[in-house]
Amino acid sequence: MLEVNSLTRQYGSKRAVDRATFTVAQPTMIGVIGRSGAGKSTLLRMLNRLTDATDGSVTVNGRNVTRLTGAARREWQSRCAMIFQQFNLVPRLDVVSNVLHGTLNRRSTLATMFNLYPQSDIHRAIEILDRLGIAEQAPKRTEALSGGQQQRVAIARALMQDPEIILADEPIASLDPMNAQVVMQALRRIHEEDGRMVIANLHTLDTARRYCDRVIGMRDGRIVFDGTPAQLTTGIAREIYGAGADFSEAATSTEIETLDREMEAVRVSDALV
Ligand SMILES: Nc1ncnc2c1ncn2[C@@H]1O[C@H](COP(=O)(O)OP(=O)(O)OP(=O)(O)O)[C@@H](O)[C@H]1O
Ligand SMILES: [Mg+2]
C-alpha cells in the first residue's frame, strides 16, 4: 500500500535523505531510528508533504502523492496525520476544541470563524478522548494538562481525521518514562484495533524494539537497516548509531551524539599532547 522509492531531499550540498527506498504491504507499526541528524524527521515530513522531495516518489495504493498540489495535497495530508514531539496544540484553547481542529480540512471558512461544529463531531471527539482515557479533561484548557495527556490530545486530534497512516516525530521525547509508556501503548492500540499504519521516529532503540513490528535504521540520510526487532542485533544497532562499545540500547540519539562529540574532543586533545 505504501511504496517509497529513492526518496531524496537535498539541502545545499547536504543530502538529508538519500535515496530512501522501502515498501509497506500491510498496516504495520514501524519505528525509525538513527542518531541526531540522520534524516528521520525529513523522511517523515516528505511522506506527508510538509517537506517536498528533491527526487524520488511516495506511492500510496498505486497513486503517486509526491507532486500533488492544492486540495489534493491537503486531502493526502489528512489521510496521514502527523504527531509532533512538542504536541503542536493551541495551549489556551480547551481540549475538545483542539481535538475538533482535526476536522478543519473539511469545514467551511465561516464555520471555522465562528467556531461552529456539528453535534456529531463533538460527540465523536468526546468518544475518541474517552478511548484514550482522558474524556474528563475535555472542557479544560489544554495547557493545564500533563505532557502525556497533551500528547494524547494530539493523538485524538489526529484520529478525528480518520487517517490511514499516523506519522509520529519523536512522540515521547519530551515525556517522562511513565507518560512515554502510556502514549506508546495508545499508538500501539490504535494500530492493532483500527488497523492503521503507524510510522514513528523514536529516539531510543529499546522503545522501537518494544512497540514496533518493524524497525528502519537511518544513518547519514540512508536506510542502513530494515527488519524486525529480532533481526536488529546489538552489532547492527552500533553500526546504525555509529557508536562505540559502550553503546546502550536505552541511550537516546541525542545522548549518543553528545557522547561522540566528547570522545572526539578527547581524541583531539590527546593528539595535541
Ligand atoms: N530546513 C533545513 N535546511 C537545511 N538543512 C536541513 C533542514 N532540515 C534538516 N536539515 C539537515 O538535514 C539533516 C537531517 O535532519 P533531520 O532533522 O531529518 O534529522 P533527524 O534524524 O530528525 O535528527 P534529530 O534526531 O536531531 O531530530 C541534518 O543534517 C539537518 O541539519
Ligand atoms: Mg528529528
TrEMBL record:
Keywords: ATP-binding, Cell inner membrane, Cell membrane, Membrane, Nucleotide-binding, Translocase, Transport. CDD domains: ABC_PhnC_transporter. InterPro entries: AAA+_ATPase, ABC_transporter-like_ATP-bd, ABC_transporter-like_CS, ABC_transpr_PhnC, MetN_ABC_transporter-like, P-loop_NTPase. Residues 2-245 form the ABC transporter domain. GO terms for molecular function: ABC-type phosphonate transporter activity; ATP binding; ATP hydrolysis activity. One of its GO terms (cellular component) is membrane. The keyword Glycoprotein does not apply. This is Phosphonate ABC transporter ATP-binding protein. It comes from Sagittula salina.
